[in-house]
Design brief:
The chain is mainly α. It is built from four helices and two strands.
Length: 143
Amino acid sequence: MARSKNTKIETPGQETPQDDDSDLIGGAAGEETPKEANTAQELNAATAGATVPEPESAPAAPDVTARNAALSALNAQGFAIISAFEGRGFVAPDGQQLTNSLDFIALVKQATTPTAPAVHNEDGARKVTGAPVLTEHGWHVPH
């Protein structure tokens, strides 16, 4: 009992013609009806209020004195970073400008504050910067 061998070979141009109705999904051939374009009233009704924020959901104004105090504590490099972000208009996830966020200003301050004076060796003494240091791999001479 062997299966029958299917040896049908198809060549281009010799396909069997199919019914045009079988190619369409959910309709018959020639029944295409174009959808009418939306009118101005329909477009306005669909997009009404999409771009205008709700008054109660508008972000609260940041504390200006706290922001100014945080900005005054920044060094020149941190201030340049804040200026670049402000110029590009980045917005925080809560909707306010990113440079008004005290957390962002604190992060920039932390990133631009030099940490060399706070580095200590194993004995607890502050490391002298710029002097050659003997390490387990040999002498390290800073540039």
